[in-house]
Every structure is written in structure tokens, then in C-alpha cells.
Design goal:
By secondary structure, this protein is an alpha+beta fold. The chain has four helices and four strands, in the order E-E-E-E-H-H-H-H. It binds zinc ion.
Length: about 150
């Protein structure tokens, strides 16, 4: 099924219209958002995205300037476009990563807390060891006095 029709989606910017249509031969073979650092690799291109930005004219304020940017995107990146992800809104990778981290942490909460406490202590002790001994001893004495008061 081939479609020439453009569909509009929410944009991250008020001055920008985001339009999407199905990919067709001639649009390009690689996702425009492909980067070597991406956490999710791009698949085959599925859509053409057209971003139309209208701004107040530089030459004449009454004549708006229109800038059209076309990008070829894979299904992962078209999902971000549909979400309206842009400068202010995070993409689906960031959201998924946060949710995955929280789900795993919740399932292994005690293990995480223990590991966290161990690492905090190791780092703190590592830096305190760099202090001159007299100062370190003074800190320890103050700390033990305060702990007895509580
Ligand atoms: Zn992509």
C-alpha cells in the first residue's frame, strides 16, 4: 500500500508543523537520525518527515519566512516524531531506559541499597585516607563524640 498522504503530528515547537508520510523509493536509504552512539540501532527507513518552521521575516516582519526540512526516518525515530520529542521533550529511548532502571531497581531494592552503601563508604574512606593523620583522628574523635550524644 503506497500513500502520498501527509499526516500531522504534535510538534515540540509552536512555530513548527510536523508532517509524516510513508517512505517511498527515492526518499533515501538511511535514517537521518542514525548515529554511532545511539543506544537503539536504526532499522530500514519507513517514513519521510517534513518539518515546516514559520518565523517572522528577517527582511520584512510582515512576510513570514518558511523553512522546510525533510528527513528520512526508521520506525524507532518516527515513534519519537509521533511523541513530539524535540528539544524539551525526551525521546522514547530515554523514557524506556528510566523505566527499565526503575523496574530492575525495584525488583532488587535491597541488593541495590547494599551495593550503594558499600560504594559510598569505599569512596568516602578513600578520600579521607588522603588527609593528614592528625586531622583524620580529630574528625573521628568529633564524630564518635557526636554519635554518643545522640
Ligand atoms: Zn533511526
Amino acid at each position: 500500500m503506497e500513500s502520498q498522504e501527509w499526516f500531522e503530528f504534535p510538534s515540540d515547537r509552536r512555530d513548527t508543523e510536523t508532517l509524516v508520510r510513508a517512505w517511498k523509493p527515492g526518499d533515501g536509504m538511511t535514517c537521518s537520525h542514525r548515529t554511532s552512539r545511539a543506544k537503539v540501532s536504526c532499522g530500514a527507513p519507513v517514513a519521510l518527515v517534513k518539518r515546516v518552521t514559520t518565523s517572522i521575516g528577517y527582511r520584512s516582519p510582515r512576510i513570514p519566512e518558511v523553512e522546510v526540512r525533510r528527513t528520512v526516518v526508521c520506525s524507532h525515530h518516527v515513534a519519537n516524531v509521533i511523541k513530539g520529542a524535540g528539544y524539551a521533550i525526551t525521546g522514547i529511548t530515554t523514557d524506556a531506559e528510566k523505566e527499565a532502571r526503575e523496574a530492575v531497581l525495584a525488583a532488587h531494592w535491597e541488593e541495590y541499597q547494599k551495593e550503594f552503601a558499600t560504594r559510598v563508604k569505599a569512596k568516602r574512606d578513600g578520600y579521607l585516607e588522603k588527609l593528614p593523620e592528625s586531622l583524620r583522628v580529630a574528625f573521628e574523635e568529633i564524630e564518635s563524640t557526636k554519635n554518643e550524644e545522640q
